[in-house]
Amino acid sequence: MYDYVHGKLDWLAAGLPTEGTNTELPRAADVARGDVPTCALGDRLGEVWERVRSAGWNACVVVNEHSVVLGLLREKELEGDADLLIERAMRPGPSTFRTYVPIAEMAEYMTKHDLVNSPITTADGKLVGLLLRQDAQRSASGTQRPKGNER
Amino acid sequence: MPSEIDREEVQRLVAGGAQLVEVLPASEYREDHLPGAINIPLAQIDARAKEILHPGRSVIVYCADSA
């Protein structure tokens, strides 16, 4: 007998196929926006805000050279002093979520905790995309399970 | 004591005919499980394993994670 010690969450985090009712529903990674702007700790806020704005965004994810998420800049932080280093301006260590979380759970959590966006990462913290609450809510509203099959 | 294995070893053993058993409650199994896995909740494993599992094939058990 063998014990797959890291279990189902490890399997899901690797993006491997599964069976079950959740396979019919979108997950966080399906809805997250992979084109979110990113920046590095040593960048200056003014240059980053300019780049973010011109790309049509109001948020930016701070990553290291391996795309591991270090922080998040929402509009409030981006509007700070242009000379500020990103490492001083960012929200460090934002809550991140795994790729496999069903979108309905994400929408509910983001609404409850008033999160306008949340980074979606792999198990080792690498950025997959930024999930916007409005996208999560829109996607979830089209994928509600029939009553009686809810948690 | 079962031998601890990782994801790659799971794939290799399953390709060779091993049986996958999820020991989580049925509600969690219904939502997501590894391809081909059967469900025997932990509380029932002693009573049901012999009746369900093929004695000549390797068995891999798993739950949600290592916690």
Q: Which strand order does the major sheet of chain B show?
A: 3-2-4
Which residue ranges of chain B are poorly predicted, with pLDDT under 50 across at least 5 consecutive positions?
Answer: none
Sheet having the most strands of chain B: 3 strands, parallel
Oligomer: heterodimer
The total of beta strands of chain B comes to: 4
> What characteristic shape of chain B results from the CA principal axes?
globular
Helix content of chain B: 25-40%
Approximate helicity band of chain A: 25-40%
Rg over CA atoms of chain A: 17 Å
Largest inter-chain contact set? A-B, 23 and 31 residues
Strand order of the largest sheet of chain A: 2-3-4-5
Count of helical stretches of chain B: 3
Q: Can you count the beta strands of chain A?
A: 8
Structural class given helices, strands, pairing of chain A?
Answer: alpha/beta
Radius of gyration of chain B: 12 Å
Beta-strand content bin of chain B: 15-25%
SS content category of chain B: alpha/beta
Estimate the global geometry of chain A from the Cα principal axes: globular
How would you describe the overall organization of this protein?
The complex is a heterodimer of chains A (151) and B (67). The two termini of chain A are 32 Å apart. Chain A is globular, with a radius of gyration of 17 Å. In chain A, helix 6 (103-112) links the parallel strand 6 and strand 7. The model of chain A is unreliable at 146-151 (pLDDT under 50). Chain A has helices spanning 7-13, 28-31, 45-54, 75-78, 86-89, 103-112, 133-141; strands at residues 2-4, 38-39, 60-63, 69-73, 91-92, 97-98, 117-121, 127-132. In chain A, the strands form 2 sheets. In chain A, strands 2-3-4-5 form a 4-stranded mixed beta sheet. In chain A, strands 6-7-8 form a 3-stranded mixed beta sheet. In chain A, helix 6 (103-112) crosses helix 7. With 151 residues, chain A is α/β, with parallel strands linked by helices. By secondary structure, chain B is an alpha/beta fold. Helix content of chain B is 34%, strand content 19%. Chain B is built from 3 helices and 4 strands, in the order E-H-E-H-E-H-E. In chain B, strands 3-2-4 form a 3-stranded parallel beta sheet, covered by helices on one side. In chain B, strand 2, helix 2 (26-31) and strand 3 form a beta-alpha-beta unit. The radius of gyration of chain B is 12 Å and the shape is globular. Chain B starts with a strand and ends in a 5-residue tail after the last strand. The model of chain B has no long low-confidence stretch (mean pLDDT 92). Chain A binds chain B through residues 1-12, 14, 16-23, 100, 151, and chain B through 2-7, 9-10, 13, 18, 22, 24, 27, 29-37, 58-66.
